[in-house]
Write a structure and sequence with these properties.
Layout (H helix, E strand, L loop, with lengths): L1 H7 L3 H7 L4 H17 L3 H17 L3 H17 L3 H17 L3 H17 L3 H15 L6 H17 L3 H14 L9 H15 L2 H14 L7 H15 L2 H14 L4 H14 L18
Helix pairs in contact: 1-3, 3-4, 4-5, 5-6, 6-7, 7-8, 8-9, 9-10, 10-11, 11-12, 11-13, 11-15, 12-13, 13-14
């Protein structure tokens, strides 16, 4: 650290003979110091060193080294439990990689920001960050899978916030994009989730239209269990038949166990059927009881 600082303030003779401050050398010295601090688990000091390194590399017009140093600073800040600093440093790296047209790296670290918000249970910021990651990955042809994974995260969070329109649009878009290739085996799952969101929104007329579209989109869908399940739940909702709804859910769960997301959405659908009083079928916490 001392040697780097000395190089930042050279004497008159050094300025004359070396041609000025060598910011690339300064940055390398700060990186070395940061690595020593990191090895000794002095994370606050490591963050300081890596940020100074990044600043020096910016002065040296070395964008890649600057971004790498900001990422190192972020990872050390994470070990120091400084969440806001982690997001700040990663965002700086994302901005640099984006300006340089390195969208794969930018997307990778934007996704890292999203995962951090997700771990903190900050749903709204996680959804925004995953959306940005999807858009960034989308600029690279070989990153379509990562873009799709981030979009699906956005859909899951949108449905959690009851923004069903956003969730439906994404599930249907991803289904459409996966009709060809290996991804076609997941299409019926995406259509199932889109349909469940439509049912949760309470728009039964639109649900009928959606089922027709889904069958046209995927010619095998009419024979799939996912389609029958949506049709059974739709029929139960239109008839306000809670027993039929429960039978449909139990039958589906017996072969394809419901994950937490589906359970949450089905709980909301069921509540839409309630006409008051204790109608049974829910656990003490209000979730579906399939026993």
């Amino acid at each position: 650290m001392a040697e780097a600082q000395r190089k930042l303030t050279p004497g008159v003779w050094e300025r004359l003979t070396s041609g000025g401050i060598r910011y690339d050398e300064v940055g390398e010295l700060f990186v070395k110091a940061g690595n020593v601090y990191k090895k000794d688990k002095q994370f606050d000091e490591a963050v300081n060193a890596f940020v100074k390194a990044a600043d020096a590399f910016v002065q040296a017009n070395s964008a890649h080294d600057a971004a790498t140093s900001y990422v190192q600073a972020a990872h050390c800040a994470k070990n120091a439990n400084n969440t806001s600093a982690v997001v700040d440093f990663l965002q700086r790296a994302v901005d640099i990689y984006t300006d340089e047209g390195k969208f794969s790296m930018a997307g990778k670290h934007q996704k890292e920001i999203a995962e951090l918000f997700e771990a903190e249970k900050d749903t709204e910021n996680a959804m925004k960050a995953y959306k940005l990651a999807a858009e960034t990955f989308g600029n690279e042809n070989n990153e379509k899978a990562n873009a799709r994974a981030c979009l699906l995260k956005v859909a899951m969070f949108a449905s959690e916030l009851e923004d069903y329109t956003t969730a439906i649009d994404i599930f249907e878009q991803v289904a459409q994009d996966n009709l060809e290739g290996l991804g076609r085996f997941s299409v019926k799952e995406y259509l199932l989730k889109a349909g469940m969101c439509k049912l949760a929104s309470g728009d039964m007329v639109s649900m009928h239209q959606a089922l027709d579209r889904y069958k046209d989109m995927l010619y095998t869908f009419a024979r799939d269990r996912e389609c029958k399940f949506l049709e059974d739940v739709l029929g139960a909702c239109e008839a306000f038949d809670l027993d039929a709804f429960t039978r449909a859910v139990v039958d589906f769960d017996s072969i394809t166990p419901l994950d937490p997301w589906k359970t949450t959405i089905l709980t909301r659908i069921r509540k839409g059927l309630q006409s008051g009083g204790d109608l049974g079928g829910e656990g003490e916490d209000g979730t579906l009881d399939l026993k």
